[in-house]
Amino acid sequence: MKRNFLLFLFIVSLCLGASAQGLTRKVLQPRWVGTWAAAPQPVVKSFMPFNNCMTDRSVRQIVKVSVGGEVLRLQLSNIYSTEPVEVRSVYIATATDSFAILPHSAKYLKFGGSYRTVIPAGKAIFSDALAFKLKPLQKLAITINYTKAPVVPTVHMGSRTTSYIMKGVTNAHSNFARAFRENHWFNIAAIDVYNDMARSVAVIGNSITDGKNSTDNAQNRWPDAMSEYLQLKYKETRVGVLNLGIGNNRVTIEGGFGATARTRFNRDVLEQRGIKSVIIFEGVNDIGAARSGQSEEVALKLIAGLDEMAKKAKGHGLKVYLGTITPFEGAAYYSVFHEAAREAVNLWIRNQKVADGVLDFDELLRDPDNHHRMRREWQSDWLHPNAAGYRAMGEYAATKLAGKL
Fold first, then answer.
1. Distance between CA atoms of 178 and 98, rounded to whole angstroms?
2. pLDDT, tens digit, for every residue of 319-359?
3. What is the extent of the structural domain holding 374?
4. Do 174 and 214 share a structural domain?
5. Considering the entire predicted model, what is its pTM?
6. What is the CATH number of the domain that holds 228?
7. How far apart, in whole angstroms, are the C-alpha atoms of residue 191 and residue 198?
8. Domain count along the chain
9. Judgement on whether residues 43 and 21 belong to the same structural domain of the protein
């Protein structure tokens, strides 16, 4: 049995190599499915003020996956850097608490048959297939031993999860207790599992999806809650939930964090593996960035952007679900003009005929006595939900979409 499994891995690796060279795969068609993802973005110095150069550093990063599998691969991204990243080695292991791992579970990834790899400037790469028993909802530690890294790296700033940074090279028995700690992810972009019974849903959004004001290291953003609810209540669905939210992201207006949703939609959503559905939940930052008196103009541009992304996903054979924009009276964004834009966009979302369904987060979170404001018990700053609000969103989305994804 073990020999057959090793043969399977060998064939998968051959097929991946053929894919990278643009050759036809006739032996086996691997079915990779995303179990975790994060949207790459450039550094914003005001939010990452420390020295972000990881040359001769070891960085341990913790993620929580959605669906499980027995074979996985890791995607590393360097798309926003102008210099290559040189990696000495990467090992993964079951995470326990904080920086701690189960040393016996650790395995080193290979890239084209080698432990060392280089991520070219402006590119992303995949590791080779690796046998690793990944459980649903498992926390996984990814430790990268960098040889040389750009001063300005490709990151995901809103990890809500602590990364542990040490000088030099580490291994599975290294103690990270004295490591420098920073709540950002570096270069990690996705984890896929080989699982022909699963599929995934990609969620594109802003800071509400990215989990601002959720609990650090608790993995309680609304897509996390959705994933947990699907796995525990609807196990037969086997759906990976991929969080492609970026804080202060916008659909059409430049000036936010990361590329606009329209610009990054192909890469961050359509290029994910095994996706069958897309949730589009963006727009509040476009509205908030608009000057007073421009409510009609910003609403029309936002509707056009949402419509464009929905039609693009439908054109790729995907199911599409649109999320209504949540209320924000009490936040700095609020004015009667901004509220008019929000209500106009939400009216279109509820009545459009492009998407397969609507997640009415506005109706879910709004105060029944004041529809312009979030429920007090579910808000953190009148713009973002708190942990209880995120939990309500995730369970609502899972219940609404179970069996449809």
1. 12
2. 999 999 999 999 998 999 999 999 999 999 999 999 999 99
3. 198-401
4. no
5. 0.92
6. 3.40.50.1110
7. 14
8. 3
9. no
